[in-house]
Amino acid sequence: MVYFEIKNIGFNCGYDKGECARYPGSCNKCIQDRINSLGFKIDTNIRIMEMDSDEKRLQMYQDQIWQEYLNVLNLKHIILMDNASGLPIINYPVSNVGIDAELLSGFIQANITFSESSGVVKRDSLIDFQFYEFQYENFYILLKNGEWSRACLILDHKQSKSLQLITRDFLIDFERKYEQELMNLRNHGFLEFPNLQEFIIETFNVQFLFPMVIARSIAPGIIESINQNKIQNAILKIAEENLISKQFFFINTLLNKIKDIVNVESKIIVYEIYQLLKMKIIIPTTLETAETSVKTFQEERARKLENSQVISHIITTDDNVLAIEELKVKAKYMDEKEAQKCMDLFIKKGKTAEKARIYKEAQKEYEKALFLATGFNFKMEIGKISFMIVELDKIIAEMDLDFSLSAAESSEKKRNYIDSIRHYKKAIRILENDANLGNTDSKIKKIQKKIEKLQTLI
Fold this sequence. Notes:
Elements: H1 27-37, H2 54-74, E1 75-82, E2 88-93, H3 101-118, E3 126-127, E4 131-136, E5 139-145, E6 149-155, H4 161-177, H5 179-188, H6 196-204, E7 212-214, H7 220-228, H8 230-245, H9 251-261, H10 266-278, E8 282-284, H11 287-306, H12 317-331, H13 336-355, H14 359-375, H15 379-413, H16 417-433, H17 440-455
Antiparallel strand pairs: 1-2, 1-6, 3-4, 4-5, 5-6, 7-8
Helix pairs in contact: 2-10, 4-6, 8-9, 9-10, 12-14, 13-14, 14-15, 15-16, 16-17
């Protein structure tokens, strides 16, 4: 027969505490008797906790996911070893900290051998008589021995109790799952453990650190559910904004951006991100896939640059810097007459774009004209073009500000307060970065009061 233990199982007794004469004195015995009657074996040291409400139960789950997230942030490297020979079974780097796994394995084996042979183990080097703890350079090492193998975790700081329990359970499950492979290693030296890396990722929730993408299609019912959850809605919108300029995003980036918008506990945000992961709305991808995606993106961008004369409207500000660099090379071979003619052409193009309200394009042309005016010391044109750029910057800033305020007010009317705060904070950043908008301090204070009011409604 195969024996299983089930963790974090909730039990609804079916009675209201106000109607039960045995509450609360007999609850533990009542629950144990009823669970025993279902065929479950109950240990004498079972721990039963009463959850007063759905809210407290939710808080418990939030705390649990938050601790798992902190655990994986603390985790830098995992080494599995044969506990007889010290031979590494797998070296899995969780982050790029540059650990010499072979040297570290030797250090661990030497410490274990010394501890076991000396007959004296320091109190601070043995935890609960099951876990060893060492310090290696600037890292902490948590080590657990099993029957066949040894799990070694390299950490940034001291481990939590929950990480100890995860490590213990991981080692038990690993030895059950790979019992035959461990025997083959001992008897024949075969180092074959299929899907072991995936097993580690799943157990320690390493996917929390992976680059993330958004599912290409989302069912209408799920979209409606996300729209009703203000935090999930904000997470998805910020993730989509990140994906406009990049091919992936990280959970920590989302967490920091949402924290910047609204005063919500980090554990609540991470819990909602985790729900989106479970629903496969946010999807982890491997670093290799992400790097390939970035390379493809860069190659596509380079191809567009080659045709920039035809599709100039898609060129970004960074590309305009490149255009000015190219202009520097051409300007070396210009005389003043050619420079004047080229500068006038840039100004003409800028004015045409400005009349068409293509302000970013106008800005690029004026910047190229100013570069030539400055380089050839055309004093009158320097002042004239500088003024044109300042006025254009003001128009662009005013448009961005109006859009952010309108979007904030629209979201506020829809009671999407997190999204509203996000747009109001963007408006504040615009005001802080552009003194030409006039009386910015007063405007910022008014917006901050609106934000404070909205935060009380969340």
